[in-house]
Amino acid sequence: EVITVQELAGRMAEKASDLVKALFNMGMPITVNEAIDQDTAELLVTEFGHIMKRVSDSDIDIVHDEETEKDDPATLKPRPPVVAVMGHVDHGKTSLLDALRGENVTAGEAGGITQHIGAYQVKTKKGGVITFLDTPGHEAFTQMRQRGASVTDIVILVVAADDGLMPQTIEAIKHCREANVPMIVAINKIDKEGANPQKVRERLLEHEIIVEAMGGEVQDVEISALKKTNLDQLIEKLALQAELMELSANPDRPAEAVVVEAQLDKGRGAVATVLIKRGTLQRGDTFVVGAESGKVRAVIDDHGKQLKKATPGMPVEVLGLSGVPSAGDVLTVVENETRAREVASYRKEQQNKARTTQAPVSMENLFSSVAADRAMEYPVVIKADVQGSAEAIVTALTNLSTDDIKVRVLHCGVGGITESDMQLAANSNAPLIGFNVRPNSKAAAIGKRDGVRLKYFDVIYHLTADIAKEMAGELGPEI
Ligand code: GDP
């Protein structure tokens, strides 16, 4: 073991809790204060999009991508801003995205067919182009960020004027703040009776968002996505914000892009919509994307038009992938196919390794599907003497779940602890709870060999108290 999770997080400039989550997802429930070895550290560092150097057997160094490969300032050219729309459900994110896109079609290309590829571009009156991520909500945003791929330059925070600040509004504000992404507040549905834009502005103050109308610096605009009111103003404000940010990228280098969405298409095979971060992607380029590789067979824009190449800030569909990558995966053009396949197969191996240490799916998982998807999971294996106890334990443990950590019952059965119970607990790094039962000798041997944490109880109250304490420990100290 060379470094604690906490220390590694510091060096990577990431949040320790995000590292703990990533480790957990790789099947390693490790707390912030525990140390990990070089291999694990490297896995994590790569996962977050950085590069790790082994300085010696006992020391490592983190190289941030941007540092190593920063483009020479002289090569940088302006690029369009990438805008995401966030806000509470039903506040009008989809309507706004549709309206902004519709504006574009009527203003621009006659009869242009729009393809929903996960992102689109709008040409503003002044001539500047804006790229919109067409997946409303926070999932895409956080998913990409978890992979170290931040593509969003500006967020439009949609708040319905008749409904005001709601939980997902506040969550969106939190995301923007953490990612350090500026936002523009679009107060929507001003056409509705009962709309109270001023109240929205006042409530935003409570979250330290001071909009222009209140003398602050965050731009705000009253709109109606339905009636298409003030959309030009919104676009103008976006353009202004983008101008301030002086966004640029080097177009003259092998392309680097981020996957916005991807799927298997019946006729076309694996298709990914990517957003070009820098460089120019061309037909015929060889690339690695996540654990997949390929050769660009076609580059298609958001109007279904085939292009020869795509430049920074452009969202395009790419054909010619070996398989379907995940949103947030980075596509990198590499020199040759051998290299591409090497990198892809290495990554696949790592993924498989992580997967086999994860628990198999079972009926009892329905508890975890109820749980919010971003919470950590605390896996357990339960054996009890009678069905009634088993059920009572599952209920009691499920009640321990919080927003941050959820109990996940991998298996719950009646009878003595068997070899397969031990195996399951060992493979998924879960404690094995025996309620009035003990393992047979073979199972005991496996448990000892694999270091299974065995917990015996005969009182449910003691059991829940113990697990509650463990779960709190798993989360680590608040940071
Ligand atoms: P999302 O869940 O944030 O994507 O919200 P939607 O775009 O699906 O909108 C939710 C509902 O609000 C739909 O019924 C829309 O027609 C309606 N809506 C969206 N924008 C406006 C608006 O500006 N005015 C009014 N009156 N209704 C709107």
Return Rg in Å. 25 Å
Mean pLDDT: 84
Give the strand order, joined by hyphens, for the main sheet.
7-8-6-9-10-11
Give a count of the beta strands, DSSP E runs of length 2 or more. 25
What is the helix content? 25-40%
Keywords: Cytoplasm, GTP-binding, Initiation factor, Nucleotide-binding, Protein biosynthesis
Organism: Sphingorhabdus arenilitoris
Subcellular location: Cytoplasm
Domain Tr-type G: 78-248
Task: Quickly list its features.
alpha/beta, 25 strands, about 35% helix, about 475 residues, six-stranded antiparallel beta barrel, binds guanosine-5'-diphosphate, six-stranded mixed beta sheet
Structure explained in plain terms:
Strand 16 and strand 17 (292-300) form a beta hairpin. It is globular and about 75 Å long. The model is unreliable at 105-111 and 358-373 (pLDDT under 50). The chain has 479 residues and is α/β, with parallel strands linked by helices. It has 15 helices and 25 strands. Guanosine-5'-diphosphate is lined by residues 87, 89-95, 136, 188-189, 191-192, 224-226. Residues 78-248 form the Tr-type G domain. Belongs to the TRAFAC class translation factor GTPase superfamily. Classic translation factor GTPase family. IF-2 subfamily.
